[in-house]
Amino acid sequence: MNIKLKWQITLVLGLSFSICTYAQCSDLKNFPKGSEPQEVGTRLVKKFLQTPNTRFGRINPISPPTYITYPDVCTWLGSLWFADALNDKGMHQQLEDRFEPLLNTQINMQPIPNHVDNNVFGALPLELYKENKKQGYLELGMKYADTQWNLPQNAKPEEKAWAEKGYSWQSRIWIDDMFMITSVQAQAYLVTHDKKYINRAAHEMCMYLNKIQRPNGLFYHTPETPFFWGRGNGWMAFGMCELLRTLPKNNPDRKTILKAYQKMMGALLQYQTKDGMWRQLIDNPASWKETSGTAMFTYAMITGVKNGWLNNEIYGSASRKAWLSLITYINKDDELTDVCEGTDSKNNYQYYLDRKRITGDLHGQAPVIWCAVALLR
Known about the structure:
Elements: H1 3-25, H2 37-49, H3 70-86, H4 89-99, H5 116-119, H6 123-132, H7 135-147, H8 157-164, H9 177-192, H10 195-212, H11 230-246, H12 254-271, E1 278-279, E2 289-290, H13 291-306, H14 312-326, E3 339-340, H15 349-353, E4 357-358, H16 362-376
Antiparallel strand pairs: 1-2, 3-4
Helix pairs in contact: 1-14, 2-3, 2-16, 3-4, 3-6, 3-16, 6-7, 6-9, 7-9, 9-10, 9-11, 10-11, 10-12, 11-12, 11-13, 13-14, 13-16
């Protein structure tokens, strides 16, 4: 064999190996044993079913919970999606059985519909209604969707101002809101087919995008807190994903939301660590690697690849790397480690850097389940 032919064969084999290796890196269907989404998701859903409802405030862990909090809603909702993705009727029934007392013996556990963090609760009974068509679930869920826009009699001047402009009176321009508001409104649209719910969610999202998305594609926590907090940005990434999955193609706000979403995903690529994670403060290389934000970004990228909004090779590879790294943070008790504790808005950079790392917090458990769902869709 002459040298030229040998070189050509070596080059072809090398290119073939590179292509196969890269394709494997972007593969969102096949994973090593122990990292399959079916197994990981099942472990975390079972853990949720064994975990008591979150105690509001978490100041006195001995006191009984006051009402269902939004981390419970996030985890419950994701668990229902996961059960549906597996077509696991038994798991779905267990999740519904856990909810049923909230309609009768534990009705006091229903949150007061007076804040975005409370109103998102409505997404849960609406998701259950899709499966069994129980009128009680529909009525309960729609109460939270409607009161998010119906101005209360004791509304503050700033709340009245938002309502007069056609936005939710609960608007406050925190990035968290773009999960809390859009989730319940999108669910209301899916069960009623009334476009007013999805249209106002999209209109609200565009207002938030205009106010807090920065030129680099990322988001401040609030206009007064100019820091790129990881999980905060995760709420926005998830919110845009769920709107894009639900919005009719002819919705006038769709292009704006898709453009903002793609801009954010491009920015996140620049800050992903070599092992696939993202940090507590996204743009600070000295900040610690944080799991709840990483899980939310991973979900957003997987969803984008699956729906054709993002390039499969680039973002499929980033998603796979993130998933395989993220699940190494799950301990033997099926609890995710290094989850940022609940975080208020504060114009203090060190405040965000010093947030505690929590283990097993539902802020983290939930989005890992979402990732498993996205991989199975």
